[in-house]
Amino acid sequence: MNPFFKSEGKEKKLYPLLFSRYSGHDFICVELNCDDNTLIPIIPNKEFVNKKKEDIDQKNPDIRDFKYGYIVLDEGEEFWNTDYRDLVPSEWLNKQGSDLLPYYKMLMPHEIYFNSDGNFSFEPKYPIKGYYMPAKLRIDPTAHIVYEDSRTNDLTKLARLGSEGRSTATSVISYAVVKSLAEQGETVEDQKLLSFTDNRQDASLQAGHFNDFYATIRLRAALCAAVEKSNKPLEIFEIAEALYRSLGLKEKQYAIYPSNDEDFPDERNIEALKEYLKYRIFQDLKRGWRYTLPNLEQVALLELDYKNLDKLAALDDRFQNISFMANMPKEKRKDILKNILDYFRTNFALDHKFFKDIANNEELMRDRLSLDSVWSLDYNERLDKPSEMVITMPSPKPKGKFFVSIGQRSSLGKYINRCLMEERFEKLKKEEYEITLQSILKLLCDTNFLTVEKDRKDTNISYYKLRVDQLLWIKGDEKTIPLDHTRFNFQEGLKGLEPNNYFQELYKTDFSHFKKELVAKEHTGQISSDQRIEREEAFRKGEISNMFCSPTMELGIDIANLNIVHMRNVPPNAANYAQRSGRAGRSGQTALVFTYCSTMSPHDVNYFRNATDMVAGTVQPPRIDLINEELIGSHLNAFLLMNLEISELKSSAADILDLSNENKIFVNQDIYARIEHLCTINKEYFINEFEKITLSIVSELVDTTWFTKQWIEIKIKNSQYILQMHLLVGLECFKMPVC
Fold first, then answer.
1. Each residue of 245-265: b (16+ CB within 10 Å) or e?
2. For residues 539 and 547, is the Cβ–Cβ distance under 8 A?
3. Residue 553 included in any domain
4. CA–CA separation, 396 and 558 (whole Å)
5. 292 within some domain
6. How far is 43 from 288, CA to CA, in rounded Å?
7. CA 336 to chain centre
8. Residue 70 in contact with residue 28, Cβ under 8 Å?
């Protein structure tokens, strides 16, 4: 990014913007230059990091130690009147609780005044007023959120325009193109897109990314439809069957060995598919499993609740041993209990018979589900084992188990202490907290919400999991998004988050309108010739909807009914662009060619600004510098090989190599000696003849300072070594796979 632009002949500064993920307010990214009191524009990257807490004088912190941060403009909002001492955790306060500790006071918003030239002061010297907050952001006053965990990355709190990845953008665009073609009534054969990338690994990655994207949205759309149709909440024992019916897949779409008669499908194939669907639903209960694809719960299409939780919350006698909840309204009790259970769920601490037989379930899926289908495990994928929640971590940790702490310093521990303080109770110390939490966990175990297992060696340590059979899948109201109160300290006054309309509509899609599965494949030098021919034919028929290819598809392959070409990156030059764009519209029909330009690639950004140079650029004919010393040297080697007449070169490479030791391969000693002898006795002839031939073809060599008889003589002296190296390099190239 160029941090400056000219306006009316005067240079102005440009400041990057980020946006609160919860309030949408803009945060200006700056570096404070405290020497000349100016605001420097800075992109929030790896260098956008202030000193660590332990490296700062915490009693007398200096603003220079907090020079990287954000400015939010003061436009008269009410939230600037908030007393931040009421929001922060107690450990940020002094012993009296009357004020923030000096270090944490520096993390709070500070009034700052500045002008359009980037001059600033913490005194009201300039016309524009805002508030400065150092990075990492520990408080978002615009959303009334305190980020207690200092490890949380700022990009999980703030977003920026154009922050999507190239793979995600390509998958979303590719899906939208094929969907649009289907909606326009194009034939199944014409519902396709050809996408180019310069890197064959990227083509493979992109094909997998699209298939993953498609399978995820289709699965969620099926769940959304199943919940919509159900007249009651769905439970785990019903989920797999409901999804199976909602998807309406034919056996040949997922099975390795489908039945020839569709009316007689193999029951074991169906069982494998249902187990696979159930596993994917378990994964969707995780927090952040798909960072770029919010799940149904996060777009208000689904609500997850727990059986009998209302009943438990209403029973006062069950909470007599939990002091802060004893006299609490049942609605507040349910909120706390639900947040605790959600913490287990989103940490994948799940208990279900599926995981007790996980090895056999994985084997069933691999034996029955086709790797070529989107409805199967990936080649290297292993089923995730559930985590287990522990108050005290065991030492040593048992093998094969994954633990998540629910101790006092965990997100759950901080949440429970916040709940106590809201009810006017003192914050619990470690021992008091563990007693209170054990009382809550015992209640949830006794009422069948959680399961508990004692450590085999130390019976004082217990492992807790959530019983999945207590979960309820309920249709969402399309308006209310649940907030994660255990991990984030939300304060009252935060407006409800609005669901993402794009993903809401995406998950409501009726995929039966496509008349086919939207499959993506790669077309690169990594696959065999037979596979490439097979995929080209399937692409012509529309059986493959998205073909992601390296430059292998630039030349010599004709897809007559192709209307749309996409380029995942700007090609190296106009010649490549012409070849790739020329794949579309070859039968005279209207064609669309479009290119994705990444903000992180200078090459892409340049041609985004100067698109004509690429799209309508002049294709330069290939040129060779005929007086290049390296090129003439290669020709000399070829000249020598031709005149030395080594007969063994006319057959197998093995005939000229000593293969007695595979780790040290050399040219046969007798051939090497013959080359040396012939070069010695014919040296004068070789020098004169090569000079004569070369100058007759490239007369410009006369004007060079390096092309002399002496140069040719030196090259011939080294020829035996050079020829050996060329032969060995050629052998290594022969061993390498084709690109």
1. ebbebebebbbeebeeeeeeb
2. yes
3. yes
4. 62
5. no
6. 25
7. 33
8. yes
Residue spans of beta strands (DSSP E) within 649-728: 657-658, 666-667
∠ CA 216-221-222, rounded to 5°: 100
**Mean pLDDT to the nearest integer, 207-233:** 94
- Evaluate whether 135 touches 50 at the Cβ level (below 8 Å): yes
Of the three residues 475, 494, 528, the one that is the final residue of a domain is 475
The secondary structure of residue 286, as a DSSP letter, is S
Residue 190's CATH number:
3.40.50.300
State the angle between helix axes of 430-446 and 411-422 in degrees (0 to 180), rounded to the nearest 10: 100
Residue 413, domain extent:
306-349+386-475
Q: Does residue 326 register a pLDDT over 70?
A: yes
| DSSP class per residue in 130-165 | EEEEESSP-EETTTTEE---TTS-GGGTEE-TT-S-
Q: How confident is the model at residue 738 (pLDDT cuts 50, 70, 90)?
A: very low
Q: What is the pLDDT of residue 739?
A: 39
Does residue 137 share a domain with residue 173? no
CB 543 within 8 A of CB 521: no
> Which residue do the tokens 């959600």 mark?
342
Distances (CA, A) of 724 to 6, 248, 539: 60, 64, 46
DSSP class of residue 51 equals P
328-345 confidence digits (pLDDT tens): 999 999 999 999 999 999
Q: To 5 degrees, how large is the angle CA 726–CA 732–CA 736?
A: 140
pLDDT mean over 678-697: 87
Domain boundary among 584, 615, 646: 615
Which whole-number Å values give the CA distances from 381 to 364, 377, 378, in the listed order?
14, 6, 5
DSSP 174-194: HHHHHHHHHHTT--GGG--EE
In a domain, 228, yes or no: no
- Summarize the confidence of residues 315-336 as an average pLDDT: 94
Lowest mean pLDDT among 179-193, 305-319, 381-395, 722-736: 722-736
Pair 18, 149 in one domain: yes
Asked if 79 and 142 touch (Cβ cutoff 8 Å), the reply is yes
**Hey, how many other C-beta atoms are within 10 angstroms of the C-beta on 385?**
13
- The string of pLDDT tens digits covering residues 122-166 is 999 999 999 999 999 999 988 888 888 888 888 888 988 766 688
* Same domain assignment for residues 542 and 671: no
Distances (CA, A) of 23 to 131, 162, 296, 429: 16, 18, 21, 34
Do both 397 and 463 map to the same domain? yes
598 and 675 housed in the same domain: no
Q: What is the total count of domains within the chain?
A: 4
Tell me, yes or no, whether 661 and 571 share the same domain: no
Residues 432 and 462 in one domain: yes
The region of weakest confidence among 317-321, 385-389, 449-453, 675-679 is 675-679
User: How does DSSP classify residue 255?
Assistant: B
What does each C-alpha distance from 584 to 199, 210, 592, 671 come to in angstroms? 21, 21, 7, 54
- Angle, nearest 10°, between helix axes 709-717 and 719-735? 60
Q: Clarify whether residues 49 and 146 are in a common domain.
A: yes
- Side-chain-facing half-sphere of 145: CA atoms under 13 Å: 23
719-735 vs 669-681: helix crossing angle, rounded to 10: 140
Backbone angles phi and psi of 565, in degrees to 5: -125, 135
Measured CA distances, 190 to 185, 298, 445, 562 (Å): 10, 35, 57, 7
